[in-house]
Please model this.
Amino acid sequence: MIKDCLISGETKVVGLIGYPVEHSFSPVMHNAAFQHLHLNYVYVPFPVASNSTLTQAVRGLFSAGAAGLNVTVPYKEQVISCLDNLDGYARSVGAVNTIVREQDKLVGYNTDGKGFIQSLRSEGVEVMGRNILLLGAGGAAKAVAFALGQAGVSKLYIANRTVERAEQLAAQLLGSTQTIGIELSEKALGTVVDQCSIIVNTTSIGMYPRVEGIPFPALMLTSNHIVADLVYNPVETRLLSAARKQGCKTISGLGMLAYQGAASFQLWTGQTAPVEIMQQVIAKMI
Model:
């Protein structure tokens, strides 16, 4: 049991690897959860500035005794080569956001998709039978796209600046959902936006410190659209601010942060995460 936030030789270390990581709310969120449940854990961010040192960083942290890691941009796909095994969902997605030491093996999981669906449901939004436009085709997009397919969306458009990546991801999503890859351009978006009721930004555009970016032409939005942004810092991205002005219902990335974090927490500790506590501490940071 951890007392008075003291770190000892028995403290288990978990953390976050990515670049940048100084903007992350995960350390405060997880450390509050550990303290609430009196668990002798501490969560630390680890900036890894180069892909060339990724394997060294991951293996080094676990060799030094780390109990688990989260993975954020830009390494959710690249980190797979550092691991010994993947769970079934992470293997299907082709991206990892959580690493767990299981005996002497490093095993990758993906809790992003589950966290995203839970964040929508917490806002009263169900996706079954809807047409959805997904912005981006990176690691986070893969997790969200697979989760949306499992949740029964009718049609999923995947828009990416490199259209080949969007088409490749669309081809991976086998099942009843119709998936179509398009270019992330105003012309291409204009042909599909009116067919979609939910627009989801999975790119890092608009994320701290480059907060002025916006991944979607806001004037295409109407009050019929729901706009969700996976970016949570800032909470009110330029995309969400513009969408709100157009009369859209908006959903920030804070809910997904809490729910995917709760799933990671359980993988590391074996205990149910105090989601309400995690959400409360995030809210205080806004």
